[in-house]
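chain below, 253 aa
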Amino acid sequence: MKLKTLLLTLCLAGTATFAQKVKYAKEDIKKMETYLFNEGFNTPSPKKTSTIVLKDGSSHKGFCGKIETKKGQIYEVSLKDSITKKNEVFNADQINEMYVYPTNAEKIAKVGKYMGNIRNFGTKKLTKNTAGGRIHFVNQTVSLKNKKDDKEFLMQLINPDFSDIISVYHDPRAKETGGFSMMGSPQLGGGVIKSYYVKKGDKVMWLHKDDFEDNYDFLFGDNAEFMKKYPKNSVEWDYLSFLINEYTAMSNG
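prediction:
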C-alpha cells in the first residue's frame, strides 16, 4: 500500500510539473528569439584610438598595436601613446577597463556570416555586425571553461544596456549550433552561440548551452514572478539574451 501511495504521489507531482509548462504565442516566441547581445569581436583596430583605464584611475589613449591572449582572452595589451608615441605594455591585472574599436576586416567577415544564415534575418540586427562604436572590455577574474586556475583577463561585455544584475561576456572560443545548407545556399537553422561567460554577484562562470537548465535557478531563481512567467521547462537556450533582459527589467521594477 505504501508503494502504491508513493507511486501515486510521484505521478501527481509529475503531472503538476507538466501542467506548469507555459505555451507561448508565436509572436512571443519570435520576440524571445531576438538576439539582444552585442556582437562579439576578437580583434581591436590598430588604426583607431583605444582607451585604457588602469586600476589606479589613470587613463591612457593610443593605438592598440599588439595584444596577447590565452584561450582567446586578452591578458596583455601593447599601446602606442597617441601623444608621446611611446609604446607601453599593460597586463590585464593592471587594467580596470578598456575601450577599443573593431577592425574593418572583422566587421566585413561578420556581415558575410550574417548573410550566410537565413535564421539571422529574423533574430539579429545587421547593425550589430557593422556598428563602428567602441567595444567595452572589463577586467574579470575567471576560470577559463570552469577548468583552469582563476586569472584576470579583459573580457568584452556584450550586454552593456542591461548588465545591472547579470553581466554577459563574449567567449572568443564559443562554438555555434549546426545548420543545413545545400549547394552554397544560405544556411538554414543553426548559428546559435553555445557559450558565454556570465557574472552574477561575485560569481563568474562559463555558461554552456548544455548546462543552461542546471544553472537556471542560479540565474533567475530569486525572482518568483519571472520564474512563474518563464519556467525553465518552457524556455530554450536560444532565448538567453531576452531572458536576461526581461529578468533585469522585472527585477528593477
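The chain is about 25% helix and 25% strand. The beta strands are 49-54, 59-70, 73-81, 87-91, 95-100, 135-142, 151-156, 166-169, 195-200, 203-208.
thats it, cya
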